[in-house]
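Subgroup meeting minutes
Present: P.N., E.W., G.H.
Scribe: E.W.

1. P.N. recapped why we're keeping a running log of single-chain structure predictions: easier to compare across weeks, and new members can see raw inputs and outputs side by side.
2. G.H. added today's entry (284 aa).
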Amino acid sequence: MSYTNGINDSSWRSELSVFECKLIQSVPYYGEAIFKTRAGEALGFRLKAKTSRFKSGEADVVSKSPLWKHHIDTEALGSVPVKKSKLPVLLGYLRAEKMLSELNKGMELEFVRDAWYENEENPPVHLAINSIGFREQYRKYLECLASLLPANFDQLKRTSLYFAVNLPQADDELSAKVRQRLDNILQLIKHDSKIRFLYIDGHASAPADRAHNLALSKTRADLVEQYLTRRGIPQDWITKRWHGERYPVSPNYSAKGRAKNRRVTVRLERIEEIEVLPLAANDK
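Output recorded in log:
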């Protein structure tokens, strides 16, 4: 059994945003081959099948010249793990980049693996990914990569910001690392209209008394809040709390542990659905 596109079909498409860049080829009767780079993450590749076809194990991957070329070149790209599922193949950055390089050269990729529903004596399943129409969409994909946000929601939804012993005097004196993390959060909120709640929690290590630690943790939370509100985050989106030394994430008996406890966490929440109340009926 072979799954492929006709030689005159251009079945590549791109789905592009600041959150992720996708290159997708639809394969008739099989499903889709997807290259995806998400903001803040490396490139990956997956096969998405309409129903499971491949037997669990390993599939051979081959790069070869299209049939219409006079000279046929073939290169074995090795074997890849396969699961009996609708997502049978998931590959990381190195293999995915190699596959993109082969497609950009005009080569065709082929996955070869036995079908789970056939006897071993029967021919294996061949799944071909061709390069017709690839370069135009690949160019758009590369442009998309340059516009991706530095991090995605999953990476930023709970962010820990660490402070030195000596407190900054103003929010613009926060460390470069803290400011970079906060700037990443600001960029994400600018483009993700569902983010509407920010929870800022200040913490301290434990060498001082309770009152002093509460004051330190409040000051740290205040500095983070000021940095965000001065750059456009509405005050009513923010819930701010401070806890002193009550919630350590590491023992305070070492300098390394205390450094991890001198922190502010910023948690982001989305409004997944906006509830619309029905209009009240007019009394007559």
